[in-house]
Amino acid sequence: QVQLVESGGGLVQAGGSLRLSCAASGRTFSSYAMGWFRQAPGKEREFVAAISWSGGSTYYADSMKGRFTISRDNAKNTVYLQMNSLKPEDTAVYYCAAEDTKDVNMVGSYYESEYDYWGQGTQVTVSS
């Protein structure tokens, strides 16, 4: 069992930056890939970025590539999402998720259904 808690959301002007954190806790001795998703009002939850347990493999949704960076510090049981050049359309609740795996180089999935644990989200609001 893993518990995830997101933090770092808030209000920022367009063009600004935020860094989100996702802290994991609980009893787990296996590795897990991580992903970030977001959900804007009236829209379905969408994939943002994912990373392998090793941290060596990442991938991003097209709209985030070049602006967002996912990283992790396993010693701190924390994954990060650095968001730069924020746009009003980035406004959403951001969720982190963990996917159990024995493959330390497997990137987190694009699909929500592949994840085993979810945080409750942190609000990001980007003003124009």
Structural class: mainly beta
C-alpha Rg, in Å? 14 Å
Order of helices and strands: EEEEEEEEEEE
Beginning-to-end CA distance, first to last residue: 40 Å
Average per-residue pLDDT, rounded, comes to 94
Binned strand content: over 45%
Instruction: State the low-pLDDT regions, or none.
Output: none
Q: Find the count of extended strands (DSSP E, 2+ residues).
A: 11
**Helical content band:** under 10%
For the biggest sheet, the summary is: 7 strands, mixed
| Discrete helix count | 0
Structural description of this entry:
This protein has 128 residues and is mainly beta. The chain has no helices and 11 strands. The strands form 2 sheets. Strands 2, 4, 5, 6, 9, 10 and 11 form a 7-stranded mixed sheet that branches. A 4-stranded antiparallel sheet has the order 1-3-8-7, with no helix packed on it. A hairpin with a 4-residue loop joins strand 7 and strand 8. The radius of gyration is 14 Å and the shape is globular. The model has no long low-confidence stretch (mean pLDDT 94).
In short:
This protein has 128 residues and is mainly beta.
Keyword list:
128 residues; 4-stranded antiparallel β-sheet; mainly beta; 7-stranded mixed β-sheet; globular
